Amino acid sequence: MKDSFNIKIGGSAGEGIKVSGLTLAKSLTRLGFRVFGYSEYPSLVRGGHNTYQLHVGVEQVYSQVKQIDILIALNQETILLHQDELTTSSLILYDPGDFKLPKGQLKGKYLGIEFIKIATQAGGTPIMANMVSLAATLALLDLPVTSLKEIIKNAFKRKSMEIVEINQKVVEAGGQFTKDNFSKYKLKIKVPKDVTTRMVLTGNEAASLGAIAGGLQFYVAYPMTPATSILHYLAAKAKDTGILVKHAEDEISVVNMAIGASFAGARSMVGTSGGGLCLMAEGVTLSGVSETPLVIVNSMRPGPGIGMPTWTAQSDLQFVLNIGHDEYPKIVLAPGDANEAFIQTKESLELAEKYQLPVFILLDKFISENDYAVDPFPAKHLNQRFSFIKKSYLSAHIYKRYQLTKSGVSPRSVPGQKNSTYCCNSYEHDEYGLTTEDPKTRKLMMNKRAKKLDEIQDEIPPQQTFGPQKAKLSLISWGSNKPVVLEALKNLPQVNFLHLNWLWPFPKKQVLDFIKNSKKVVCLECNSTAQLGQLIKKELGIDTQPLLKYDGRPFYPEEIINKLT
Amino acid sequence: MKKYNYQTSIAPTWCPGCGNFGVLASLKNALQQLNFKPYEVVIVTDVGCAGNMADFISTFTFHALHGRALPPAVGVKLANHKLPVIAVIGDGACYGEGLQHFINLMRGNHDITVLVHDNYLYSLTTGQYSPTTPKGTITKSTPEGSIEEPLNPLALALANNTTFAARGYALDISGLTSLIVKAVGHQGFSFVDILQPCVTFNKNQTVDNWYKDKIYPLPKTFKDKTKAFKEALRQDKLATGIFWQEKKPSYHTQVSVLEKRTAVSKKIDEVDISRLLEEFI
Fold first, then answer.
1. Which end of chain B is more exposed for a tag (fewer CB within 10 A), N or C?
2. Would the ipTM clear 0.90, i.e. be above it?
3. Strand pairing of B215-217 and A47-57?
């Protein structure tokens, strides 16, 4: 009896692999399983090798794993490329009517199921072959196809009920064929006792929902993988949510437009990846000096230059910490999974407004595009507004937009508001916003802006630790590695783990408290120069051992286990 | 009697005789005529001599980065389309550093007014050639004479679907005032290329050897775009006035989200996302 199992779908781009995987993920979630979906694809519209892998369990499964239990091979290449992930007991599903098995020694058991023929004989079209493969998979797990049929209904009912019915017939036929011919291959798996309602969504979808919950009013972006799906999602929901969504001509326009909207009082956010963020750098400093709130989602991918657009990396940390010329305060957050992406993106809009500065959400291809199964997010959200002055304030005070205050945060008016005009200034300015080059004022303004960071220290939530309090070895990581490390920890009982999702201002005390009790500290991250390690060294003067990966692929739990045992 | 005071505590820092004085005076006159209270207007200025106007006028102002006045102007407009938004920018910023914004935001017919101070030169940086500098001009950055053909702002705008294109002259305050009033009143992208002498650095395009003989007022606005285009291509004379104006819906009127309210007035104190969550289950 297996507690968990791993399914991989492979084929070429344009074959609907991601959709198939997500459909299966949702179907299994509805049956009460925990799932984690991970996809890989090249930067092409057609062709190239694409995969989707789904880790499924009765208990929590955190991340993808290497070893495959069921491989759905939509082309011959898939069988050859994934031999080292197969075992003698792996099941490989393929369509013998579509292609022949490759020659030579092959690992696993090969079940020829004519996906296309079954689909067309059931009244469907060849494109529905994927549905046959999903139904066959469920049959081999001895699971009903009911939830798959529900998901199909939800996905296609807007098109037509006829399409729903044909797809459902195809699913029935695929399930029946597999039962009739391959029932002896059935995998023995544990089945969940209860069914809990869960959502299946990507990190980008979670971040988008978090932004909506946090009162987003203005989203502007230029398409760039892996951040693009935020633009797609928010644009598709603009009518429902009332958010103004704009695709601008380039990232320079994006960041400046968002700052303009924010100056006008809107909660504004932009989304991009490293190359786009490079173009935004000057604009980010404008948010800093003019103290205009701005949220920047940066979904990292390998660079430099165009790099590897559809692969993953955590190589922009030091860039983001130091982005732009001169010095100004900023906040840098790095959610570890979909749940954190939701919570922290919501929070980022509040923080940006409260402290009038740029706030970064650091995602990467891995978290942006993985499918996470999470408890449904809360439906209702209350949002407070910060620093906006009211009429009564103006009658009692002389309004100075950049007033020197104890906290460094000044009162703020919005265009259209009576008797409160000011210059929102990219130049150094005095308390009224008027340009100045006076040395005293310059210093006061630099200090005023910097002071905000002290206040923000109190906002840092407890950073999560996992594993025993005292451990032989301690792991520190940040952002999207969280689920992979948690998966690895299942087999590393003597290792503890500090997950950082708040990177700047740096949670000094919390990291120090964690390190204090550790004999050996390993910093795990997806870049080649240990960027978090550098940050810890700079902030605490402590050396950590790097465990790095920078080939565009995420860590696998097996790799972490191997390195640490 | 002036109804509103647009004066700040700062006196303009421009050189005596600078064309910017004429533009500032015309802009203030226009705001008076349009009956705009200072707090009801947003002026986004670029960087350069023209951009320094941000400190000299008491509306809401936004002193942008160099070349980037237009994106925040559009950002303000899309966030609160009830506000009139005017961008003040120089030829270097508008036609050089930020040309992509000029071209692309013009295509969107965003309802903003763009006042370009065109003095054929980068002046705040002490005189280098700009995109409108005539070919062959010797400047500090082109000691052997500039090699590029100059950009023709009006012809470019006409070819690029602007719904309002005009040329003004900084020393003709009454004419420029009237142009600005009409430009701000225009629904959609209104563009005024304002010729102005730079008395300090530009010794070629001076009042005496350039503007005096070239400037003349357009008798009337063209109804035929090809005629407007032909006039824009003229080099012997520089007509002032409205070259082209047409009625087309501006950007924000075509965004369904903005049909009933502004983006900034979307209520966010209580947000319910329950309907959005359904598709993920």
1. N
2. yes
3. unpaired
**What span, in angstroms and rounded, lies between the C-alpha atoms of A214 and A381?**
7
For residue B188, tell me if it sits in a domain: yes
A521 Cβ neighbours under 8 A, 6+ residues apart: A473, A474, A475, A476, A515, A542, A544, A545
- Distance (Å, whole) CA A440 – CA B110: 41
Range of the domain at B179: 20-280
User: Taking the CB of residue A60, how many other CB atoms lie within 10 A of it?
Assistant: 13
d(CA A351, CA A341): 15
| Contacts of A356 by beta carbon, 8 Å cutoff, 6+ apart | A291, A292, A293, A387, A409, A410, A412, A452
Residue B264 to chain A, least CA–CA distance (Å): 5
Q: Is A415 on the interface with B (CB under 8 A)?
A: yes
Nearest to B103 by CA among B60, B63, B148, B153: B153
Look at residue B1 in the predicted model and tell me its pLDDT.
57
pLDDT digits (tens, 9 = 90+) for A300-346: 999 999 999 999 999 999 999 999 999 999 999 999 999 999 999 99
At B44-76, the pLDDT tens digits run: 999 999 999 999 999 999 999 999 999 999 999
Q: For residues B120 and B106, what is the distance between their CA atoms, to the nearest angstrom? A: 22
Q: What total of structural domains would you count in chain B?
A: 1
pLDDT digits (tens, 9 = 90+) for A150-179: 999 999 999 999 999 999 999 999 999 999
DSSP class of B54: G
* Residues A78-83: contacts with CB under 8 Å, at least 24 apart: A78/A10, A78/A11, A78/A49, A78/A51, A79/A106, A81/A10, A81/A49, A82/A8, A82/A10, A82/A51, A83/A107
The whole-number pLDDT of residue A1 equals 87
For residue A513, the distance in angstroms to the closest alpha carbon of chain B comes to 37
Of the partner residues A259, A267, A380, the one whose CB lies closest to the CB of residue B272 = A380
Taking contacts as CB-CB distances below 8 angstroms, the residues of chain B near A239 are 256-257
Residue A532: what residue type?
A: L
Phi then psi dihedrals of residue B43, to 5 deg: -115, 120
Question: Is residue B9 in a domain?
Answer: no
- Report CA A58 to chain centroid distance, whole Å: 24
Residue A505, preceding peptide bond in cis (omega within 30° of 0) = yes
What is the structure's pLDDT at A238?
98
pTM as predicted: 0.97
- Check which CATH number belongs to the domain holding B255 and give it: 3.40.50.970
B165 touches chain A (CB under 8 A): no
Which chain B residues are Cβ-neighbours of A434 within 8 angstroms? Answer: 8-10, 55
Write out residues 241-280 of A within 8 Å (CB-CB) of B: 241-246, 248-250, 252-268
Q: Which helix (H) or strand (E) holds A58?
A: none
Q: Verify whether the Cβ–Cβ distance A256 to B266 is below 8 Å.
A: no
Q: Which residues contact A111 (CB under 8 A, 6 or more apart)?
A: A91, A92, A93, A94, A136, A140, A178, A182, A185
Residue whose entry in the numeric block shows the structure tokens 């009692």 = A396
- Let me know if residue B45 belongs to a domain: yes
- Triad A497, A502, A508: Cα angle to 5°: 75
* B71 interfaces chain A, CB cutoff of 8 Å: yes
- SS3 at position A24: helix
* Strand B128-129, strand B121-122: pairing: antiparallel
How does strand B113-118 pair with strand B215-217?
unpaired
- Bridge partners of B167? B193, B241
Q: Distance between CA atoms of B134 and B206, rounded to whole angstroms?
A: 14
The answer to whether residue B198 is domain-embedded is yes
What the block records as the tokens of A358 is 């740029």
* Amino acid at the residue B243: F
Question: Is the CB of residue A398 less than 8 Å from the CB of residue A358?
Answer: no
